[in-house]
Amino acid sequence: MALRYSTALSSSGSSTPLSLRPRSPETPNLRPSGAPARQPSGRVKTFSSLQNNVNYRFLWTGNLFANCAQWLQFITIGWLALEISGSALHSILTVAVRALPVLIMGPWGGVLADRWDRRKIVMGVQLVMFASAMTFGVLLAKDMIDSIWHVYGYMLVSGVGFAIVQPTRQALVANVVPREDLGNALALNAMGITSMRLTGAAVSGVLIETLDFQWNFFVESGMYVGMILLLLPMKTPHREKSDQKKASPMADLKEGLRYIVGSHEMLRLMLMNIVRTAVFMPLLLFLPAYTEEALGRGAGVSTAMIVAMGAGGLFATVLISSFGFFTKKGMVTLVMLISGSSVVLILGLSQWVWLSVGIMVIMGFSQTHFIVGNQTLIQTLVPDDLRGRVTSVWHYEQGLIPLFAALTGGVGILVGINTAMAIGGAIALAVSIGFLIRFVDIRRLD
Q1: Within this chain, domains 50-230 and 247-446 share the same CATH topology
Q2: DSSP category for residue 366
């Protein structure tokens, strides 16, 4: 039987074996030594990680509140910026600016997640985000928000909190479920994000139409409180204590980066995620311009495309959590990267509304499959004492979304947004096919 070792580099630069993973068809890899092999069962296990782990029920429900708050903010800020400034550009930029703090704070958030109690970090950051949302709502109610720069300021504060809490919340999933439940738990986590995208958008629209903008921020702040209350009784039974002496934060950061660069599998999984972010993520920002310029339609078609994408993602999460993946997770991520890139290419070439709306179901299906598969592999491969730092690098791509959007938008100004999307999709498709051919080790990961 062939044996494969995974190593992490300590801050002193020495290599230490972390796990011994047998690669054989009979024994699944990525299973901790001594853990019993999972017995096959014909029973559908859609919510098995929730049923088996009370602490994950607390975390998953809390994440529903936090994800709904984030999507509520995402939708509300765009309309508020448009109301205050009258500029579509400000409407886009105020949403995008939330990603900028990730470029500076994101990796340090991972360092904090590996040095401190992850549960307490999330609770503390959610408390700050509650205070900022409540304060902004009160100021808005008193007509004291009269400049677009106030909106930018609020989103920068929110972005700092997002940069710290996002990788920490992700790392917590592996601390509240055993390894055999991790894939199901991450699929259900993605289900929560997808469902809250639709819920947050609906709640935001209803509040804006029936009440006023400040109520959106009051509801947002209440959701942060909801997550704090749910985390109070939560335990982290699968958090592994490290025997390493505490180094400096900078040494910790370097250790995490050395681990990623030193592991071919981890580095390649990260590179694949960057390609996914560069091509898939800016799509939502360009839908209004795309539907108007390429399809000659308005907001109704743009909304229908978002809903179709959400439906595809929701279907994917139910499928994964119920039956698992259709083949090895590494192969799934490569195939879905190719599938999503093909969708962007087809959208750029499409002039038919029915095709553009319908194919967004495939986009949601592909992106969700990729994210769950990619995250499951990373979260299972990484040792717990490096989990926060590795997860923060995975989320670092969020900070690059404005850059990728600006690049596509710049090309769109020259040749048209649909042509720019087609070019981006074609490049991503070529790169993804190259990954499929070249990354033999990823194809075999499960």
Answers
A1: yes
A2: H
Q: Is residue 2 within 8 Å of 23, Cβ to Cβ?
A: yes
**What phi and psi, each to the nearest 5 degrees, are found at residue 325?**
-90, 155
pLDDT band at 5 (very low <50, low <70, confident <90, very high): very low
This prediction has a pTM of 0.75
Cβ-Cβ contacts under 8 Å for 71 (sequence gap 6 or more): 196, 197, 199, 200, 201, 204
User: Letter for the amino acid at 136?
Assistant: F
Q: Is the CB of residue 351 less than 8 Å from the CB of residue 293?
A: no
Partners of residue 20 on adjacent β-strands: 5
Neighbours of 31 (CB within 10 A): 17
The DSSP code for 144 is: -
Look at residue 83 in the predicted model and tell me its pLDDT: 80
The answer to whether the beta carbons of residues 57 and 51 sit under 8 Å apart is no
pLDDT confidence tier of residue 30, bands split at 50, 70 and 90: very low
DSSP structural state of residue 37: P
The domain covering 50-230 belongs, at the CATH homologous superfamily level, to MFS general substrate transporter like domains (1.20.1250.20)
Question: Is the Cα torsion angle 435, 109, 260, 238 positive or negative in sign?
Answer: negative
Dist CA 11 CA 254 (whole Å): 7
- Return the pLDDT at 186: 83
Torsion from C-alpha of 19, 23, 24, 28, nearest 10 degrees? 50
Token digits for 179?
Answer: 């390894």
> In terms of Cα–Cα distance, which of 223, 228, 231 is closest to 134?
223
pLDDT score for 164 = 87
Domain extent listing, the chain:
50-230, 247-446
52-79 in b/e burial notation, b at 16+ Cβ within 10 A?
bbebbbbbbbbbbbbbbbbbbbbbbbbe
Q: Could you tell me the pLDDT band of residue 26, with boundaries at 50, 70 and 90?
A: very low
Rg of the chain, C-alpha, whole Å: 22
Distance between CA atoms of residues 126 and 59, nearest Å: 13
Architecture of domain 247-446: Up-down Bundle (1.20)
Q: Output the DSSP codes for 215-232.
A: HHHHHHHHHHHHHHHHHT
**Least confident among 9-13, 68-72, 236-240, 387-391:** 9-13
Tell me, rounded to whole angstroms, the distance of Cα 28 from its chain centroid.
26
Higher pLDDT, 370 or 99: 370
- Token representation of residue 176: 């509240």
